[in-house]
Specification:
The protein is of the alpha/beta class. Helices cover 53% and strands 9% of the residues.
Length: 760
């Protein structure tokens, strides 16, 4: 059969381009390191009454992947069969794929002895396709001449009861069968004595084992199009143990690492490799370790969530849910929200959750039968979700985002208790953001946005409007000047800076998810294949060079927003609001530094070290700390500029602009350090002199007292001098705000400042 059967040879787009013997297509040799790409199918049969899945153990006599547990049946449609087993592009587009279904019926009878009448073709549900490869190195060793390289069609089939199936396995095909629950399969995966086919592991971890995945949602999987994706061919490299073979094959695609616990977020989040530094490397940075310990145990961000004003205003249980779900959907953002003043904290918390709910609807690519339905939900969100206290949505999103929509009445309860001004801001921004999202729903973003204009427009809708909404909430609270509500440009630029940083970092996640945002007018200058996925092939030296040039152009574009971001921060006057805005900004510049000229962006997700994050949070208290961070990372980026990069001059210019803006605060900090050093030296000299002049033992105590007095007096002089320097030079600069705690600002308002009354 290896010589006789003729498989369907394909190109990467699943177009039929020829035929090959089963043997020839599965040979992993020097001239074809991954064999020949061909079409395959994987059948999954479920017992509806118990939710069990039928597995088979491939026979020990099979040439490829013997002795492994796998899904119910996996094989190939063939040329020259009757009924026909060759599907056309139109068959895939409409989901009919009668060719692979006919092949599935044929092979179920051949391998498992299931009669054709028990598995009629109309009972199969086609879900999606995956392009994967794997060398059979586990069976045949590192020089294995065999492997699989397929575009695999996933087919589901259900029976009311397993008793309805006649199963008589062919001994040359199958050694064993068993029915398993989801929990049983997870236990089998944990059993290191069992082997599993790589394609089965990919499908199971990517789509089936997640909460609310295909298996949990089996009825909807079989009766709706919720989980169907006919347009995408999902690409997967194998686990490392299945790389190699006689052709020494390495990664073909980007390294997607399916894991059983990567299910809490939507899209490709958690399914892409995360590049992290080793624990030893992180522990070696003692300053960051100390910062982490300080932030966790000594000086954590103070939470104002239990303030009397909040307790007396909002429903305790509903607010507790909102706080808990905020931590689930964005743990890092939750910390900076909680430190906001009590009169602003809940407003921002609900603003974030409302927009996260809206974003969940936009991001779900399978829950709605068509784009029109999704658009209708988006455009009516500000009326339904924000006006109907009973509104909720089920079956949309994954994990915690899905729970947020299911339990949205609890969010509405807290929202309804906000001031009328805050509700007006949140409703207005939600409506305008939804309108922008609706504009992009029907666009094909598989290859990114069209150009910089569309790129900026998308970022405006999903992030710039957030900046505007926050500025308006700051003004309404009375903690910031009423003029902040009119800072539309700077608010927008601040949001764009954060969003562009995320888009740059998330290249691979977004590309795998089929919704990318890198502008085509930029990346087309560097991709020789005309495809955004070209950059993921980091084994090609030319692709690696081109990818870095493209990456650096986008980083440079983001850096051009920094002057406006710093100008925005300079307009703030409340310490807590300043920190809330500044912490994400310094995290963004640190992330851009991490991404710049870094090929890891194209093979996974790069993140800054946790210790560095803690250090930045601790030091982001005023303009001096923020400017120091921006200056440090601008210098770091400038030091990594490759003179052969076509963007080198533009990047250097952007870094120089940041260095010029931060020069004043840098000079001030340098003077303070120099003054402190001089004062310390003077104190030490005074102490030594005092001790020397009173060296006898009977004068030891007075001598030590004099030394201590000298040190204390020196410290007081130094501290007073530094305060005068800061006070005397912190006004009158475009980028240097004078900050005051919220409590002091509110007292000033009550004593006649009038800002609160004006804002309201």
């Amino acid at each position: 059969m290896m010589e006789k059967d003729t498989v369907i040879v394909l190109d990467d787009a699943d177009n039929v381009i020829g035929s090959e013997s089963k043997r020839g297509s599965h040979e992993f040799i020097a001239k074809q390191p991954r064999g020949v790409l061909h079409r395959a199918f994987s059948v999954f049969i479920f017992d509806q009454s118990t939710g069990e899945l039928l597995l088979q153990k491939r026979a020990s006599t099979k040439i490829t992947f013997p002795n492994v547990w796998t899904n119910t049946c996996c094989s190939h449609p063939l040329h020259g069969m009757s009924p026909n087993e060759v599907d056309r592009p139109q068959d895939v587009k409409d989901g009919s794929v009668m060719g692979v279904k006919n092949a599935a019926v044929r092979k179920l009878e051949h391998e498992l002895g299931i009669p054709k009448e028990e598995v009629p073709v109309e009972g199969f549900k086609f879900l999606t396709r995956l392009h994967y490869w794997a060398a059979d190195t586990v069976t045949h060793g590192p020089e294995s001449p065999w492997g699989e390289h397929e575009i695999d069609y996933v087919l589901f089939f259900t029976v009311e009861s397993k008793d309805q199936l006649t199963i008589k396995p062919h001994p040359d095909e199958v050694d064993d069968v068993c029915w398993v629950t989801k929990q049983k399969l997870l236990a089998m995966f944990d059993d290191k004595s069992l082997l599993f086919s790589p394609w089965f592991r990919i499908i199971a971890h990517r789509w089936m084992l997640s909460k609310d995945g295909w298996w949990d949602d089996l009825a909807a999987t079989m009766t709706t199009h919720r989980h169907c994706d006919y347009a995408t061919i999902h690409e997967f490299d194998p686990p490392t143990e299945h790389m190699g073979g006689q052709g020494a094959a390495t990664a073909l695609f980007s390294p997607i690492i399916p894991t059983q616990n990567a299910v809490a977020k939507q899209g490709a989040y958690g399914k892409i490799k995360t590049h992290t530094e080793s624990k030893l490397s992180q522990l070696a940075r003692l300053d960051e370790v100390c910062s982490a310990a300080t932030l966790l145990y000594i000086k954590p961000l103070k939470s104002n969530l239990h303030h009397a004003h909040i307790k007396s205003t909002f429903n305790k249980d509903d607010l507790a849910f909102c706080d808990e779900i905020l931590c689930k959907v964005s743990r890092s953002f939750a910390a900076v929200i909680r430190q906001l003043p009590p009169t602003l904290l809940v407003d921002v918390l609900i603003f974030y959750l409302v927009l996260r709910a809206l974003d969940t609807i936009e991001d779900d690519m399978t829950a709605f039968p068509d784009n029109k339905t999704k658009i209708d939900h988006l455009l009516s969100f500000h009326k339904t979700a924000l006006m109907d206290p009973t509104w909720s949505m089920d079956g949309v999103g994954e994990g915690h985002e899905k729970l947020l929509l299911q339990q949205f009445p609890k969010c509405h309860s807290v929202y309804a208790a906000l001031s009328q001004q805050s509700r007006r801001v949140i409703a207005d921004i939600s409506h305008r953001m939804a309108t922008g999202m609706a504009e992009f729903v029907g666009k094909d973003l598989g290859q990114g946005t069209l150009d910089i204009t569309q790129y900026n427009r998308y970022c405006h809708f999903v992030a710039g409007l957030v900046g505007e909404g926050l500025s308006r909430l700051f003004a309404v609270s009375g903690l910031e000047s009423p003029s902040m509500a009119k800072e539309l440009h700077l608010s927008d630029q601040m949001g764009l800076f954060l969003q562009k940083t995320n888009i740059i970092r998330d290249y691979l996640e977004d590309y795998v998810d089929g919704r990318a945002f890198w502008p085509q007018s930029v990346w087309n200058k560097y991709s020789t294949s005309g495809d955004l996925g070209y950059f993921a092939n980091q084994s090609d030296p030319l692709a690696q060079t081109k990818s870095l040039h493209c990456l650096n152009e986008l980083v440079t574009d983001a850096l051009s927003l920094v002057p406006d971001c710093l100008a925005y921060l300079a307009k703030l006057r409340c310490t807590e609001v300043f920190r809330f805005c500044a912490i994400p900004q310094v995290m963004a510049i640190a992330t851009l530094d991490k991404c710049f000229n870094n090929p890891n962006v194209f093979t996974g997700v790069v993140k800054i070290r946790k210790g560095l994050s803690c250090q930045l949070i601790l030091h982001t208290n005023d303009a001096q700390g923020v400017h120091a961070a921006f200056r440090h990372f601008a210098n770091s980026i400038a030091s990594k500029i490759n003179p052969n990069d076509p963007n080198a001059d533009a990047t250097l210019k952007a870094c120089d602009a940041i260095l010029e803006i931060t020069a004043e605060q840098h000079s001030r900090a340098t003077k303070q350090k120099r003054t402190g050093l001089l004062m310390g030296t003077a104190a030490a000299a005074a102490a030594v002199a005092a001790t020397s002049s009173r060296s006898s033992s009977k004068n030891l105590i007075p001598s030590l007292a004099l030394s201590a007095t000298a040190f204390i007096g020196s410290f007081w002089v130094t501290h007073t001098f530094q305060r005068l320097v800061v006070k005397g030079s912190s006004s009158g600069s475009l980028y240097s705000p004078v900050l005051r705690p919220a409590a002091k600002l509110m007292t000033e308002c009550q004593n006649g400042d009038g800002a609160l009354e004006q804002a309201q």
